[in-house]
Amino acid sequence: MSVQHDPVQRADFDQVMVPNYAPAGFIPVRGAGSRVWDQSGRELIDFTGGIAVNALGHCHPALVAALTEQANTLWHISNVFTNEPALRLAHKLVDATFAERAFFCNSGAEANEAAFKLARRVAFDRFGEDKYEIIAATNSFHGRTLFTVSVGGQPKYSDGFGPKIQGINHVPYNDIEALKAAVSARTCAVVLEPIQGEGGVLPADLAYLQAARELCDQHDALLIFDEVQTGMGRSGSLFAYQHYGVIPDILSSAKSLGGGFPIGAMLTTEALAKHLVVGTHGTTYGGNPLACAVAEAVIDVVNTPAVLDGVKAKRQRFKVALEQFGEQYGVFSQVRGLGLLIGAVLSDAWKGKAKAILDAAAAEGVMVLQAGPDVVRFAPSLVVEEVDIDEGLARFERALAKLTQA
């Protein structure tokens, strides 16, 4: 039996919602695989993946089955108790990574909040109150809470909310000398995205991550990798640190972890985890059975050679086409990223026009993203079918052809 709903339109957003978003003019109402349909019945190909969230596309049968089964079993019990899906998911994440302990929450910001709090607590317990400085990269993005937005290196997101969290320094990304100059005895953690997502889909140099690891070891600091956007198969490895072969002390995950259901995780070692004793940190919904059941299904599908190898092959299909478009239409100077996190960097003539390309693409029936005003970002489903890649890219090319002829 379907429930009858009151009719709503895009104009309702401007009447009832806080205006901190500027959503597209159409409302998607249904999704299947890598295609969505809007209120008018128009079909679009989705290369956004809900901003690198829908790792298995829309309504993947394994996720629908996991959610439905759990919805009929147990929804919420609180962390006064534990639950089977949370324990199963923790085992799978521990078995698949460097980690020995998992903490579950509801978002990437919460996973980073937990990571930063853990780093400061470890330093406080081991070395005293003067070791609390966190070093992050300019143009990084780590979430929207006051702590995480202060660690993120983008003043446009952190300014205007009163005094910022103290003890946070920002250095240029991929600059080893700047990092060396910044790390000191007061440093408790260095936090980096293996690929800067919001900052322009910019991958780290291997030598840079290796230098960060060495500097942290030398100065008794912890290395934190924010893998909220790069994790869960997005790079072609389960986590991007595995691609680089550089092991962090703490890792944050979210976005693709739940395949569209809100969940975040902080992963770390037993020695570090023991500093979060009972009562030091918590979350009401974190680790709830619904989220963990879905995330367990996600990892079961994603952490397989078929899917991870498929990510690398699909990336090549995107890269070849986008580089060809860049040459033919003069819009892109470079295609960068890792796996299915792809950034098409706009040429000088097109700088600042990423939003115009997004809008033109949507008009042709393909959804893409931007990473700042100068980069068009693609973060499709990890299992996007080749027919959808080809059709979506054909639509995207039509958009570029119209834009460049205008």
From TrEMBL:
Alphabetical UniProt keywords: Amino-acid biosynthesis, Aminotransferase, Arginine biosynthesis, Cytoplasm, Pyridoxal phosphate, Transferase
Q: Which domain of life is it from?
A: Bacteria
Q: Which residues bind pyridoxal 5'-phosphate?
A: 108-109, 141, 226-229, 284
What CDD domains does the record tag this protein with? OAT_like
Name the reaction it catalyses: N(2)-acetyl-L-ornithine + 2-oxoglutarate = N-acetyl-L-glutamate 5-semialdehyde + L-glutamate
Q: Where does N(2)-acetyl-L-ornithine bind?
A: 144, 283
Family annotation (InterPro entries): Ac/SucOrn_transaminase_bac, AcOrn/SuccOrn_fam, Aminotrans_3, Aminotrans_3_PPA_site, Class-III_PLP-dep_AT, PyrdxlP-dep_Trfase, PyrdxlP-dep_Trfase_major, PyrdxlP-dep_Trfase_small
Subcellular location field: Cytoplasm
* GO-annotated molecular function: identical protein binding; N2-acetyl-L-ornithine:2-oxoglutarate 5-aminotransferase activity; pyridoxal phosphate binding
The EC code for this enzyme is 2.6.1.11
Q: What other comment is given for this protein?
A: May also have succinyldiaminopimelate aminotransferase activity, thus carrying out the corresponding step in lysine biosynthesis.
Protein family: Belongs to the class-III pyridoxal-phosphate-dependent aminotransferase family. ArgD subfamily.
Q: How does it assemble?
A: Homodimer.
According to UniProt, the name of this protein is: Acetylornithine aminotransferase
What is the originating organism of this protein? Pseudomonas borbori
Which gene does this sequence derive from?
argD
